[in-house]
Design a protein that fits this description.
This protein has 667 residues and is mainly alpha-helical. It is built from 29 helices and 8 strands. It has helices at residues 4-33, 41-46, 48-57, 66-94, 106-134, 152-184, 192-198, 206-227, 238-248, 281-289, 295-299, 301-304, 311-324, 326-330, 339-342, 346-351, 357-361, 368-382, 388-400, 437-442, 444-459, 476-481, 484-501, 511-520, 533-542, 572-579, 615-624, 636-649, 659-664, and strands at residues 432-435, 464-465, 505-508, 529-532, 555-558, 585-587, 630-633, 655-658. Helix 28 links the parallel strand 7 (630-633) and strand 8 (655-658).
């Protein structure tokens, strides 16, 4: 098909495109390589099949926006298909006789598949362009109160146009060229759409059709050669960087679990993440993997209630900052700028509830919440900067063993005279340590849960004991706020106590305690079998050790605790307990399970003031709209936030009760 001069020109164009692409991609990976915590490429290669599966299947898309996800997946699959199509088209350009080479069935399947997918992809891209630029879907915008890189707002629109029109014109050019080819020869029943378009050229001369086919060929493949060097600067890089992100991310038990800092290593000059090159290499990949779809933002409770935090903006700001300093960063010249100077505002950093919704929602494996946790460490440990309420909570943990600043010797005050609660110090060997937690020992409402649990444990004949005054804070809030030193101090103190009594199994009523002991204490050789109280109650009911009687509650809705559900995957146990209650109907909220909405207390937010619309009120409105008798919780923080939220919007609304209290009332 191509003339000899065309063949030579195309080879030169490929060489130029390859040179520019290799240069830009090398710079991109050099920038990633300047990050901290080098990627374990050997282990990443073991995840190759996982990355390929994510690339081909697009399964990570479908947890939200199902219709749009299928459209996007169609475009992605079309793009993958067109990588193969482009190779065949290049061969066709150099060896036209290949167009007559056929493999029975397979060739016809290829033709009809490409023909249909070409139309599907063009329609899909057209819809996305209409959605972004004509309908201006709010889900794709970022509010003005969110700190953005100066080039981001205009850059995102420009990039979306470039990517959108590139796909449209590349596939459209190839589709048009095929229609010219069919018009010059004969219609093909296995290419119905291209054949239909080819009918429009029936009055054209044979020479004009050949010239038109050549132009379309050059247009389609020339766009590819021009676009590939642009990849590192475009959100379209997510097509490859998303699967790579999935491959290189270290395995985590829980989204909030981050690496420990060796606080005794005097050679360490930086605690936490202060500047771009302090970020782990995988977190720099996040910037190149981000597609700016804002699914994370849509799920973020802070953003949805008007705060300055947008997880989407975090990754977008990263990418545009990197693009602005691309050559310098590749050369190892990192500006002496703190991340808090350009990545997000201080208020945004402290607005995060660490609910993990952004991580759950992201289809390319980005972890903006983890960035925030690491940057908080820098703020607290390096600069001593944090909200005054957070500082007060940390002071309480350090001096008194609880964020409430209540001393340890008051941790048995919740035990009423009618309860005979065994203590580890007085007991011979027991099977379970019942971990009451700071809230369970100190907070009035959480104390009711503690007493209910004692009732349940006694009724079921469980072998257990509590630590009582020997118990102290797990350090959860300290770690989420950023004081790694204090967290480790509390963890080591508790592990020492556990070892003293030979603790093997632990029951907790607080998901934050559960998450910390289960997922983070093993980093310090504290390995225990930890079970949440809803799981334990479910087990007791299943084994017939608890008999549930009728009660007055008719309708219940359950609020998922982020640290129980999203962080640890425990969704069914609380619901199974509730559905086992005779005469009770369980109604699900619209935002439920892995799509649940935070109460607003995680990430140390329990101890900080909140401005604007309150997250707990937002969630309480959703719960109250169901008209239930009770909102069930399985977390002391969630109880406080939901109870306060419902009372604020409706004094006569549903009552908030912990699942243990509900069960204890019926045994």
């Amino acid at each position: 098909m191509l003339s000899v001069p065309e063949m030579i020109i195309f080879i030169i164009a490929v060489i130029v495109s390859a040179y520019l692409s290799i240069r830009n991609f090398r710079k991109m990976f050099t920038i990633i390589g300047h990050g901290a915590q080098p990627i374990d490429w050997k282990n990443s290669c073991k995840n190759l099949l996982k990355g390929i599966w994510v690339f081909i299947s697009q399964t990570t898309l479908f947890n939200r926006r199902p219709i749009l996800s299928y459209i996007h997946a169609g475009i992605a699959w079309g793009f993958v298909l067109y990588m193969l199509v482009n190779v065949f088209d290049v061969f066709y350009g150099y060896i036209p006789a290949l167009s007559h080479f056929e493999i029975p069935y397979l060739t016809n399947f290829y033709r009809i598949f490409v023909d249909i997918f070409s139309v599907v992809v063009m329609l899909g891209v057209m819809w996305f362009l209409i959605r972004r630029f004509i309908l201006r879907d709010e889900a794709l915008t970022i509010r003005d109160n969110v700190q953005m890189h100066p080039n981001a707002q205009s850059g995102m629109k420009k990039d979306s146009l470039i990517v959108g029109f590139f796909i449209m014109f590349h596939i459209g050019g190839r589709f048009l060229g095929e229609s010219f080819h069919l018009a010059a020869n004969e219609a093909d029943k296995f290419q119905p759409f291209a054949s239909a378009l080819g009918q429009l050229w029936g009055g054209c001369s044979a020479d004009s059709l050949v010239i038109s086919e050549h132009i379309a060929w050059w247009f389609a493949l020339g766009l590819i050669l021009a676009f590939i060097p642009y990849f590192p600067f475009s959100k379209h890089a997510h097509l490859f960087m998303g699967p790579l992100n999935t491959m290189t991310k270290p395995e985590k038990i829980s989204p909030a679990t981050i690496e420990t800092i060796d606080m005794e290593d005097e050679s360490v000059e930086q605690w936490g993440v202060g500047m771009l090159n302090h970020l782990p290499q995988t977190q720099i990949i996040d910037a190149f993997a981000c597609i700016a779809c804002s699914r994370c933002q849509e799920a973020c409770p802070a953003y949805q209630t008007g705060k300055e935090l947008s997880p989407s903006a975090i990754e977008i700001n990263k990418r545009y900052y990197i693009s602005e300093h691309f050559s310098d960063l590749a050369a190892g010249k990192f500006p002496e700028e703190k991340l808090t100077d350009w990545l997000f505002s201080t208020d945004a950093m402290w607005a995060c509830t660490t609910c993990g919704a952004c991580i759950e929602a992201c289809p390319v494996g980005n972890e903006p919440m983890v960035d925030i946790l690491r940057i908080r460490q820098d703020a607290v440990l390096m600069d001593g900067a944090m909200p005054s309420e957070a500082a007060q909570a940390l002071k309480g943990i350090e001096n008194s063993g609880s964020p409430w600043s209540v001393p340890n010797d008051a941790r048995e005050d919740w035990i009423s005279e009618d309860l005979n609660v065994p203590k580890m110090r007085d007991s011979s060997e027991v099977e379970y340590l019942y971990w009451v937690g700071c809230a369970g020992a100190i907070d009035d409402n959480a104390q009711k849960v503690s007493r209910a649990m004692i009732q349940i444990l006694e009724k079921a004949g469980v072998s257990y004991a509590i630590l009582g005054n020997e118990e102290t804070c797990t350090g959860d809030s300290a770690r989420r706020i950023g004081n790694e030193y204090l967290f480790q101090m509390m963890a080591m103190q508790n592990i020492e106590t556990f070892e003293k009594y030979g603790v093997k199994k632990i029951i907790t009523q607080c998901p934050h305690c559960f998450n910390t002991i289960q997922n983070e204490y093993p980093m310090f050789d504290g390995n225990y079998e930890v079970i949440h109280h809803t799981e334990f109650i479910e087990q007791l009911i299943r084994e017939g050790k608890l008999t549930i009687e009728n009660g007055t509650i008719e309708a219940i809705t359950y609020h998922d605790s982020c640290y129980l559900g999203r962080h640890n995957g425990i969704y069914d146990a609380p619901r199974n307990v509730l559905t086992s209650l005779p005469g009770v109907g369980v109604r699900e909220m619209p935002r439920t399970k892995d799509n649940g909405f935070c109460c607003g207390a995680g990430g140390g937010r329990m101890w900080m003031e909140e401005g604007g619309e309150k997250i707990n009120v937002n969630r309480a409105k959703e719960a109250d709209s169901l008209g239930c008798d009770v909102v069930a919780t399985a977390c002391p923080f969630c109880f406080t936030m939901m109870d306060d939220g419902i009372k604020e919007i409706n004094e006569d609304g549903a009552k908030t009760k912990d699942i243990a209290v509900i069960v204890a009332e019926r045994i």
